[in-house]
Design the sequence.
């Protein structure tokens, strides 16, 4: 990704910033000058991404957090502010899912999915928004999915949690616009990461999925970065409560 925006002096938190789409977004933000706090559970992946950013001359902090734990979410906000003094951008990218029919999904599985994909987004966004308000505003981008508006088998709790996240995005946008905090979402279609590997690792399934995507290929994490950076930029100053689907035309094809 070429440097299209200038986020010098901006501080960004990227949840799930050590892997997959979150890593690509973190690298993109850092390339544009942002100081990036990478927040997830896997320390090794976080350290590796932070090193990559630093080797390219950027600034990054690896922060281990389990987003199922409210105290750890609070600590993420505190550490970001004590290290960098502010929060300008929050990318709520971390998520989890299980590939199980509803009949086999356990109650704690449902809770983990909603806890990570929805409740943690509320708690972290609220914590970050309190800081953004003091500093004159900010940007929150929630990573949703085309599955928020399209049903399917085997991932019902995930779809439902992302549909809830879409409404949370709109409500946060409405409530926080007066504080100059823009809240938007980016909804990828199927993207080549470990998360979705069970769906595309079999060549026949990949062919079937690709056949439904007008652009004729499954997305790479880098394909998701540009729209996120745009929503973080001044060019998107008057956009709030919106979702940009980045799906190669998949939703349009139904
Ligand atoms: N890949 C796709 O096809 C696709 C399609 C549409 C939307 N998306 C969305 O894109 C986003 C990123 O997914 P991905 O494909 O890049 O998958 P991924 O590589 O598995 O990323 C998920 C991230 O969430 C983090 N995470 C999960 N539970 C956490 C917890 N309790 N606390 C802290 N971090 C946690 C993981 O980090 P740790 O394991 O280190 O904690 C990981 O970095 C998700 O919101 C997903 O819904 C993906």
Sequence:
């Amino acid at each position: 990704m070429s440097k299209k925006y200038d986020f010098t002096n901006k501080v960004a938190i990227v949840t799930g910033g050590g892997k997959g789409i979150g890593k690509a977004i973190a690298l993109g933000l850092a390339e544009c000058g942002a100081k990036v706090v990478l927040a997830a559970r896997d320390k090794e992946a976080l350290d590796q991404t932070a090193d990559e950013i630093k080797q390219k001359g950027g600034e990054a902090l690896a922060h281990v957090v389990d987003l199922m734990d409210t105290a750890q979410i609070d600590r993420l906000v505190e550490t970001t502010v004590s290290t960098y003094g502010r929060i300008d951008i929050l990318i709520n990218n971390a998520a989890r899912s299980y590939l199980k029919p509803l009949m086999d999904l356990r109650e704690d599985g449902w809770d983990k999915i909603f806890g990570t994909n929805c409740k943690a987004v509320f708690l972290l966004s609220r914590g970050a928004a309190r800081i953004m308000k003091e500093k004159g505003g900010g940007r929150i981008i929630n990573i949703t999915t085309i599955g928020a508006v399209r049903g399917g088998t085997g991932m019902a709790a995930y779809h439902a949690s992302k549909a809830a996240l879409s409404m949370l995005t709109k409500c946060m946008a409405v409530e926080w616009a007066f504080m100059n905090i823009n809240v938007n979402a980016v909804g990828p279609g199927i993207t080549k990461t470990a998360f979705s590997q069970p769906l595309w690792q079999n060549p026949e399934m990949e062919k079937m999925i690709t056949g439904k995507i007008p652009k004729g290929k499954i997305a790479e994490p880098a394909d998701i970065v540009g729209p996120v950076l745009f929503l973080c930029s001044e060019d998107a100053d008057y956009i709030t409560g919106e979702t940009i689907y980045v799906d190669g035309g998949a939703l349009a094809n139904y």
User: Anything to note?
Assistant: The chain is about 45% helix and 15% strand. The longest helix spans residues 107-135.
